[in-house]
């Protein structure tokens, strides 16, 4: 309820006037909600609240239920849904915002698709996937390139820049190589954009003995994992636009290195984080 959420920001009377409700009705609502909530295990209620806050208010019913089941196996979706409703907890909804970043109208060499939508390699450092997206700023667009290990969905390298060019990709690759020390022959998969197919990027991959793989033309599903990552990032990171690139870098570092890699659960990883998935598999 809006009034309960903002009761410490605005006076009850002013909100009641704007919303066309009575103060007494609001307090009756609070009393009913409190009485209803007291019917449930207080430890469960607190666990759901804390888990939701730890997820940065991102988790909805599915992920909260999975976390509850790890500790309180007797509770089901109906109970968790009711507690969420009484506590006014809800996950973030997907934003339908996307700008195409792929410039495939170039004369550079395009590699064959070595992945063929096989998004489940049996070991880490076998296939990396990469993509680039735009982020709004007060001075134009900021470009973010990420590289994920397809095995664990962990972000192993990323870079941001004011320019969408080969250097953006090579900087992310440099960080990924330093972080993972990949074996010879690792597949680096991306769309067929000009910065991925440029001479500079091709040379960098060749020098590091990595194999290049490109999606088929006009088929975004061939790079669905990287596309999905950006959908989650824009939904969960909470920003309108950045005032300077340093601000963007700090927020992206926090989201990727602190939250996403180490804490955010994945349905494709049996609802554990990328780091935990790799630890469990070691």
Automatic annotation (TrEMBL):
One of its GO terms (biological process) is DNA integration. GO terms for molecular function: nucleic acid binding. Residues 117-282 form the Integrase catalytic domain. PANTHER family: TRANSPOSASE INSF FOR INSERTION SEQUENCE IS3B-RELATED, TRANSPOSASE INSO FOR INSERTION SEQUENCE ELEMENT IS911B-RELATED. This is Putative IS1236 transposase.
């Amino acid at each position: 309820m809006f009034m309960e959420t903002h009761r410490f920001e605005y006076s009850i009377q002013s909100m009641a006037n704007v919303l066309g409700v009575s103060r007494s009705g609001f307090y009756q609502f609070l009393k009913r909600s409190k009485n209803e909530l007291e019917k449930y295990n207080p430890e469960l209620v607190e666990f759901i609240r804390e888990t939701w806050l730890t997820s940065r208010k991102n988790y909805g019913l599915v992920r909260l239920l999975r976390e509850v089941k790890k500790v309180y196996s007797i509770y089901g979706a109906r109970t968790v849904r009711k507690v969420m409703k009484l506590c006014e907890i809800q996950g973030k909804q997907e934003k339908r915002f996307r700008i195409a970043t792929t410039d495939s109208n170039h004369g550079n060499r395009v590699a064959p698709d070595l992945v063929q939508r096989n998004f489940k390699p049996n070991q880490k450092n076998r296939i990396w996937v990469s993509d680039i997206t735009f982020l709004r700023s007060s001075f134009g667009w900021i470009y973010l390139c990420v590289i994920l290990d397809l095995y664990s969905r962990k972000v192993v390298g990323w870079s941001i820049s004011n320019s969408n060019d080969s250097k953006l990709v090579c900087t992310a690759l440099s960080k990924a190589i330093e972080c993972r020390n990949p074996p010879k022959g690792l597949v680096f998969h991306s769309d067929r954009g000009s910065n991925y197919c440029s001479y500079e990027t091709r040379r960098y991959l060749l020098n590091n003995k990595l194999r290049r793989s490109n999606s088929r033309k006009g088929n975004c599903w061939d790079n669905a994992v990287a596309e999905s990552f950006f959908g989650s990032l824009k939904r969960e990171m909470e920003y309108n636009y950045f005032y300077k690139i340093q601000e963007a870098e700090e927020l992206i570092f926090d989201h990727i290195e602190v939250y996403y890699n180490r804490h955010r659960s994945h349905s494709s990883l049996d609802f554990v984080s990328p780091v935990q998935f790799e630890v469990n598999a070691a």
